[in-house]
Structure prediction request, 360 residues.
Amino acid sequence: MTARTSRTVASLSAVLLTACTSFYEIPIETPIKAKLDVDAFQRVLVAGFLAGGAEDVDGNLETTRLLRSQLRTKSQLRVIDTDVLPLMEVAGEDRKTDGAPLPAPIKDDKDLEAYEHVFADADYWKKIGEEYQQPLIVTGTVMFMSRQQTQLQQRESEEFDSLGRRRTVAERRLVDRKGFGLTGRFIFIDGRNGTTLYSQRFTESILYDANRQTPALSSYFELMDKLIPSFLNTLSTQKIRGTRMLVK
Amino acid sequence: MLGLLLFAAVSAPVAADARDDAKDQVRFGIRVAQLGLWREALTHWERAVKLDPTYAPAYNNLAIGYEQQGDFEKARAAYEKAIELNPNNTYIKQNYELFKEINDRTNKPDGR
Prediction:
């Protein structure tokens, strides 16, 4: 028996063995422990975000609204309802003494970097904390930008030769895709002393067929949908539902 | 020679008994897991791997039980043992892939 034949026999018997195995599909709920211990807090303040990129979506306002509504229904913390902090202005005020103007509006990650010193300003966050009875403060950055990419797409087409025999031919072509990308950071600040407790980076993107017209706001929500479970899991234990195969 | 033959003759049924007992434990574990009694199921699958440490399904089910309890370290070890014992079982491999996806997501490094 050649090596090839024995390999084939081995893989065939593996398939047969699996086929003979009894299995039972069972739903499971996997608990994922919270990344941050928030027992010390009763309230949460989603303060606002440094946001930039596409002008069709106000990343600061939309992210704040969305996170507040998610926390209201899916966390034990009491959500503080208040105006969204104008973090760009706050960061700008800080810089006035240095004399260097900050880039406005924020168009890319480099522009955003110039503002990020605001998160390290413990005095400022402590002051905000005092104002709202020392809550857990959620803030961060959000860059929502349009993206365009050319991708290689493979498609199979049917062909018939002169004798009428059918064959499939793999056809490769370049296609234009466009969509959006969402990058940034969620930052969790201790409202009692203004220090950063935890920070979580995120990157998500979505691309559609170039002819498809997708409103920026709906893409923004589509992308945030992917980030929300991980965001919530920072503050509370989450359960991920799935199915597994029990075998006997 | 005679001794060896005698040993083989005696040990074969013992091994078969162990496998049968392990299978019983696995079957019962499955029944109680289907009723949502995961702790009880875990007890039976743990017993099964003790009875027959070469029985891959017992390790697979044990891994699922640990996953359900959120004990990822033990789940990984049990899945890896199941795959080591039966590397070609597509159900076990599929379970392990799904587990890894969740586990990797949980352990994704987040910068401070």
Notes: Chain B has a mean pLDDT of 87. Helices of chain B lie at 2-34, 38-51, 56-69, 72-85, 90-106.
